[in-house]
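TASK: fixed-backbone design
INPUT:
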């Protein structure tokens, strides 16, 4: 394997000191792989082949901050080495690393990458898998592991739920990165907050019983070929399963001195060779 493509959001918008995509790029480069990247808008299908206007980049050196979950990086953390129109199926591995929500932009990207997978190139995570598994709702398949939960847009239904469980954490079904999260208590302000969270009953939200154990932090588990990963757990309760753009590895590597990003890239390299029928 000698080159990988990251389909990602604009590089200038990534927080290189914590972003897991940057960690995976760095790990790929460390293993001697050529790192290319493009945005979803730079993908196109020409005569049945998926092509991209992609950039080859080289990441600048970085180091752990020490006692922190951040890396010390240059303000401009990459150098552009080349720009070319490339056949996406010509890469050894394609990473789909755009942030949620899984909206039209995201879905259209998965349909294009279906063609890449059909041509024999591995795409991680699989486009069909992203469409099939909703990271906020898949945990509800295991109700015995989850805190009491309500999913819906009805302000009345949500208000009844809050009255039953006391305090709820409310967030958009299509939210991510801790954005637009509400703490709703069983008090006079509940209805107004729920109106705002649901945009007047027009947006679906997921409400879960507040778990005091969150004061001690949550646990991020990583799953790699059947071994646990990518799940958020608070107080022994499953909150969600990250499948669109799993993160946390880059932060963990900086804070604890682990090598999760390297391990993931190494495993993907080995299994992609098997995927293509090449001995690892």
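OUTPUT:
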């Amino acid at each position: 394997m000698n080159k990988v493509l990251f389909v990602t959001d604009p590089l200038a918008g990534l927080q290189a000191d914590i972003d897991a995509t940057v960690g995976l790029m760095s790990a790929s480069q460390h293993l001697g792989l050529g790192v290319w990247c493009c945005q979803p808008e730079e993908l196109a299908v020409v005569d049945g082949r998926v092509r991209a206007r992609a950039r080859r980049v080289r990441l600048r050196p970085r180091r752990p901050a020490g006692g922190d979950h951040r890396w010390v990086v240059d303000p401009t953390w990459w150098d552009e080495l080349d720009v070319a129109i490339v056949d996406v199926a010509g890469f050894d591995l394609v990473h789909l690393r755009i942030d949620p929500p899984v909206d039209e932009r995201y879905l259209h990207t998965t349909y294009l990458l279906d063609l890449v997978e059909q041509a024999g190139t591995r795409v991680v995570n699989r486009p069909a898998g992203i469409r099939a598994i909703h990271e906020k709702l898949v945990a509800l398949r295991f109700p015995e592991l989850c805190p009491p939960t309500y999913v819906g847009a009805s302000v009345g239904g949500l208000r009844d739920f809050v009255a039953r469980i006391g305090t709820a954490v409310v967030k958009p079904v299509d939210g991510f990165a801790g954005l637009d999260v509400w703490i709703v208590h069983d008090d006079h302000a509940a209805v107004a907050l729920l109106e705002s969270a649901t945009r007047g009953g027009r947006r679906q939200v997921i409400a879960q019983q507040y778990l005091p154990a969150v004061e001690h932090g949550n646990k991020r588990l990583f799953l790699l070929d059947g071994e646990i990963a990518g799940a958020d757990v608070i107080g022994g309760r499953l909150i969600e399963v990250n499948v669109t753009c799993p993160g946390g590895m880059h932060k963990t590597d900086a804070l604890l001195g682990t090598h999760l990003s390297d391990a993931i890239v190494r495993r993907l390299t080995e299994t992609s060779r098997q995927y293509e029928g090449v001995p690892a």
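COMMENT: The domain at 138-215 is CATH 3.30.1490.20 (Dna Ligase; domain 1).
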